Task: structure prediction
Amino acid sequence: MSNQNYKVTIQEFTAAVAGCNQQFPAKSTVNIAGQTLTPAQLVAVFSAAISAIQAVAPARAQLKELVAAQKTAIQVARSLYTALKKYCEAVFGKGSPILADFGFSPAKPRTPSSQTKALAKAKAQLTRKAHGTDKGKRQRQAITVSGSPGLVLYGPDGKPIPGVTQGPTPPALPQGSSGGSPNASGQ
Result:
């Protein structure tokens, strides 16, 4: 119940006490909810409830302050605890048994999921294929390159410097092929 509800309840019970004192003669009895009560007994019940509500209000305010102080203290301690753990892991090592003296459990190695393992394997195969390392030792030895590397020097204007140009030697063409240049399409 909120404080507003308690205030309303106190007002209701206070009005009930005043009504009982004003409207019921002191020596009369009232039959309510299967009970026969005197006005003094009714007033006693309502007054006890009012006193109980009013007694709790300061305790509730104090509890609220204590809970706020508790939250602040826990936040400060939690950040220091985390920093202490990182410090101890840096000094003693993440797998050190000394961490148990501080109440820390050594870091457990992460186990990747089966989906992560499958993706990693597929990626590794594609990488090996792209780099040409997916072949065996003898298959790689069978690969030969014809021609030789060359060097073309360019000036500051971006044009080749004449007389210093030594281009690559084109690979030998197989027998029966036409001798057209690769740029014969006019590009």
In short: The CA atoms of residues 63 and 130 lie 67 Å apart. The chain has a mean pLDDT of 83.
